[in-house]
Amino acid sequence: MEKEAYGCKKHETYDALMACYEKAASEYDEDVKVHRGYIGHETATERLVTTLKQLEFPEDCRILDVGAGTGLVGVELCKRQFTNVDALDASDALLKEAEKKGIYKNFFVDVLGPNQRIQLDDDCYDVAFAVGVFTLNHVKAEGAMDEMARVVRPGGLVSFTIREDVMFEQEYGYEAKMDQLCREKVWKLVSKSEEDYHSKTDIRKCYFYIYQVM
Ligand SMILES: C[S@@+](CC[C@H](N)C(=O)[O-])C[C@H]1O[C@@H](n2cnc3c(N)ncnc32)[C@H](O)[C@@H]1O
């Protein structure tokens, strides 16, 4: 299976990846949708919204789009009438692209990672949603999943994709962290599914999780 992160070139390091995002922010949407056939933002949002409706979350519930990038996920949430959405991302340039779409209420430039506390208060969202963030060369579990759970109120949801090629790579720590947070009763599993992710690369699927904060 081809090992590649964001499409402009093959990245060796996280810093190179982020530099590429900063430089090519205005080309991101076309690159991922046209050239890579990215559909993960649509399939994951559809699955999350189905669950939000089943669990009777109101359409104005507070959602944090984590790793929002240029706002593709926010657009999908708004299409489905969930419009109370804030955006958080490590890249200022990508968030400036997202701002042009006119869908997010607030923007936060912040970095998820080990020993990183993001600037948001405890329990201030109903949902934290990360699509395309737990993927090759991007964000590992340590610190990131913990912070998503921290900012969501008890009873709220933490939901994310994990790209299939890194799901079981120990260095990313996804399975271990998800199990740890279950054991510590930080969250409990609502659903796990496999969703379509790309239609034009070898990486066709992602794993998709929804957890409820306890
Ligand atoms: C593949 S893009 C996905 C963007 C968007 N969610 C989508 O589905 O189109 C990954 C995003 O994660 C962001 N990102 C990478 N590392 C991050 C970190 N440590 N903390 C916050 N955001 C990060 C990138 O800037 C980029 O916007």
TrEMBL record:
CDD domains associated with the record: AdoMet_MTases
InterPro entries, alphabetized: Methyltransf_11, SAM-dependent_MTases_sf
All residue ranges annotated as the Methyltransferase type domain in the record: 64-159
Superkingdom to which the source organism belongs: Eukaryota
GO molecular function, one term: S-adenosylmethionine-dependent methyltransferase activity
Name of the protein this chain belongs to: Methyltransferase type 11 domain-containing protein
Species classification: Eukaryota, Metazoa, Cnidaria, Anthozoa, Hexacorallia
